[in-house]
Write a structure and sequence with these properties.
The longest helix has 34 residues, at 90-123. Helices cover 62% and strands 6% of the residues. The protein is mainly α. It has one domain. The chain has helices spanning 5-23, 43-46, 60-83, 90-123, and strands spanning 29-32, 38-41. The chain crosses the membrane at residues 60-81, 93-111.
Length: 130
């Protein structure tokens, strides 16, 4: 017996609708939202994955802060080597290139989450919790 039979009924209805949408060929994610409800999200509504590998950032502002900090660190490291008078070795260039790719990935996550947040607000969907 569950604590809230109405919520269990809503969960079953959402799961049935989600499975029907999957059977029709749609790609969807069935996840709990921060308000506790089970919601079926389209990939563009879901945004950045909140579990698995990668940063566990849930807001657009969090992604923006991450990207800005990475850009500042990237510029600082490159400037230190540029004005330090030393030669840039292959290892330093490799590290710089790798960090540049990490920054690009973070910027891509920022854009993806910003678009998803706008779509969720337009469609009245809660933010995914997982």
């Amino acid at each position: 017996m569950t604590a809230n039979p109405e919520r269990e009924l809503r969960d079953r209805q959402t799961t049935a609708w989600h499975e029907q949408a999957l059977a029709s060929g749609q790609k969807r994610y069935l996840r709990r939202a921060y308000n506790g409800e089970l919601v079926s999200y389209l990939p563009e509504e879901y945004g950045v994955g909140r579990n698995g590998l990668g940063p566990k950032i849930h807001t657009v502002w969090g992604h923006a802060v991450l990207v800005v900090c990475e850009i500042i660190a990237l510029v600082a490291v490159f400037s230190a080597f540029q004005f330090g008078g030393g030669e840039l070795s292959g290892g330093v260039l490799f590290a710089f290139g790798f960090f540049l790719l990490v920054t690009a990935y973070s910027a891509w996550n920022l854009i993806k989450e910003a678009k998803a947040t706008i779509l969720r607000r337009q469609r009245g969907l809660p933010t995914p919790a997982e």
